[in-house]
Amino acid sequence: MTPTENPTWPLAEKKLRIAPSLLAADFAHLADQIAAVEAAGAEVLHLDIMDGHFVPNLSFGVPVVEKIRPVTKMFLDAHLMITDPLKYAEPFVKAGSDLITFHSETTDDLRPVVDHLRKLGTRVGVSLNPTTPVGSIEPILADVDLVLVMSVWPGFGGQLFIDSVLPKCRQLRDRLRPDQRLQIDGGLAPDTIIRAVQAGCDTIVAGSAIFGQPDPATAYAELHKLGLEARK
């Protein structure tokens, strides 16, 4: 089922959402940290999945997703920074991921990946690296639920925000339907979220700016407030 056939998916409402990135959390206290941001109002939890091949780093895999699924009602947004999303998407869906985002740079033919994800019954996102143009996803732009613009090079947390991606965000915002989300990931913090929101992004991934702070719930609330102010 395509988004145009069923626009009322869990994130269909166009509003500002901050998606805490689990990669920056304290893995010794995951349940507590997840509960803290959920209680603060977070609806989406971002899962950075890295394979050490598409990106030069490893993160976590299916077993972690399986363990966190029962402890939260948040929408699990799995960002697959992996070379072969066709091969590995199904285990992440079965583990409880609600949306699978794959990188456009992993294939010359995006359609089979989108069709495969739809058959798995999951929501579909496509990601663009900082220098990847919008035109590269033109064939499937109308058929995804979410477009993710990377504002750092994927693979490591704590990088500086790349301002040159903002024109791409504005271009995408003009092209996407109200039910399609525009997500941005990388270097989002109090000093950069305003620019991202003003460029049209509505789903803001933040790792160290939330989980890297002494009180993740307070950090989440403050970041969300800044984002809302930027939309006025």
Explain the overall architecture.
With 232 residues, this protein is of the alpha/beta class. It has 7 helices and 8 strands; from the N terminus they run βαβαβαβαββαβαβα. It has an 8-stranded parallel sheet with strand order 1-8-7-6-5-4-3-2. Strand 7 (181-185), helix 6 (193-198) and strand 8 form a beta-alpha-beta unit. The longest helix has 15 residues, at 216-230. It is globular and about 45 Å long. The protein starts with 16 loop residues before the first strand and ends with a helix.
Helix content: 25-40%
Which topology does CATH recognise?
TIM Barrel
CATH hierarchy, class? Alpha Beta
| Mean model confidence by pLDDT | 93
Instruction: Give the N-to-C terminal Cα separation.
Output: 34 Å
Topology:
Layout: E1 17-20, H1 30-39, E2 44-50, H2 62-68, E3 75-81, H3 85-94, E4 99-103, H4 111-119, E5 123-128, E6 146-150, H5 166-175, E7 181-185, H6 193-198, E8 203-206, H7 216-230
Parallel strand pairs: 1-8, 2-3, 3-4, 4-5, 5-6, 6-7, 7-8
Helix pairs in contact: 3-4
